[in-house]
Amino acid sequence: MAATGTIALNANSLTVTGSGTKFTTEAQVGGALVTYIGNVPYTFVIGAINSDTSITLTANYQGSNVSGQSFSLIDRGAYTAITA
Asked: Minimal CA–CA distance to 31: which of 15, 43, 46, 17?
């Protein structure tokens, strides 16, 4: 599902910082966050929800620093079914 707000990702970091996001109500631990950076899809598993504007991934983001990214969220049940 398309999510509220935008995100910033920093190279070699587990932390996703949101702007205008609602992670505590829209995201799920074990679910996925999907964003396109330069037309390349990136999928991350959510390890922790810290606040409405901060989540922790299960693996470091390996790209360049980006901000203002739109993103989608996939709930835990759907993501598990896709990857199983």
From this structure: 46
Q: Kindly state whether residue 1 falls inside one of the protein's structural domains.
A: no
- CA–CA distance, 51 with 78 (Å, rounded to integer): 23
Given strand 54-61, what is the order of strands in its sheet?
A: 66-69, 6-9, 13-19, 54-61, 40-51, 32-37, 72-74
Residue with tokens 């074990």: 30
Number of domains comprising the chain = 1
| pLDDT tens for each residue of 11-60 | 999 999 999 999 999 999 999 999 999 999 999 999 999 999 999 999 99
Closest to 17 measured CA to CA, from 67, 63, 64, 77 = 67
Whole-model pTM over 0.85 = yes
